[in-house]
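User: I would dearly like some help making sense of a protein record. I have put the entry right below:
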Amino acid sequence: MVVVQAGIRAFIVDNAPTHQQEDANAWAGVILGIGSVLGYLSGYVNLPKILPFFGNTQFKVLSVITSIALGGTVFISCVFITERDPRRDGPPPTEDIGVIAFFKQVYRSARRLSPQIRKVCEVQFFNWIGWFPFLFYLTTYIGQLHVNPIFRAHPDMSPKEIDDAWESATRIGSFALLIFAITSFSSNMLLPFLVVPTYRTPPPPLKGSNSFHSTRSAHRNGNQSTDPSGTPLPMSASMTSFFPSPPAEASHSRLTRLLSLAQIPWLTLRRAWLLSHLLFALCMALTFFVTTPLEATILSGVVGLSWALSLWAPFALISAEISKRDAAARKTGGINDDQAGMVLGLHNAAISAPQIVATLVSSVIFRIAQKPRGAPGDDSVSWVMRFGGLAALVAAYMTSRLREEGTGQDVEVKETVEANGERRGSDVV
């Protein structure tokens, strides 16, 4: 799933201009939210009765449905989404092919990451140390709150009675996950209207200027750009000269005014992401005071707001940075080492590695604090989630170190791209 998501996010980078990266990734978060809601709703339906030919258990049917949905959507993406032709970048550098060469390339790419992308990956490392315990153990946490009074009232329950109590508790925990998904989906729909866009849509180019519009007209008239062999070459959506045609002036002005009224002037995407870390840490701290499944379910719903930004902000920041630097490299004739696939692959590593750290720390906490099965008052899962809240505080601090766009970054991009070009040349030699 992580591999597929990296490819999909790379599609967004290649097909949306810089000023649309935030919107494109926000819509990706909305679609993920819809899938989460449908997935959790499926847990309440007797799927083996409705679709017996997919399996005789709920898990088997869900696995088949998930596989079909994943394969179908990936197939549609591969068929209908076009990518920029890599031949426009010139011949690739001559390098060794093999496993060792691959890891050398990964190491070089990690060293050449722009400061902004590197900082986002650092934030993600601690961010996901906090999220993994919550996502893995939320059902168990709420279930424990449900069975605590049962175990106190009946201290001598048989193993069968304990299993029945936990089965009921699992359903309550699943409902909390559904509320969590609904809140996240709603937030993904609302937040893009509240957050101030990092990049504004530039005005349309003047007539006769060398822009994407003139090139697009050439496409329509049959004068498409070609490579030396005569093969047509598509334009790249990440080029800064690519801007959509503006709508009619009157309707455009009204829409702009309405959207401006909804926006919170000081709320940039970076600040919204920082606040989401603090909100998550606060919710994890409130586990000290939560004693009932209802309170925990409400808390899960609030955390859905932070989850919405985790699905949007880091991908939007990285995608916009890659797209912006790619456009700058094309203007200056330099080489952009921030290739979407490689950068997003490194970003996925920054997401996956914390799972190991979170699992090891959780194991230690469970070893120290976990009580025997059937004993009331087991709060080991609560301590694991509080540990995740501490990691979120570190992520919040590191998010505060991210550069706010619009502070002279264009000069920095140009200088870094040219420097990367010089380093690439020295590496090849």
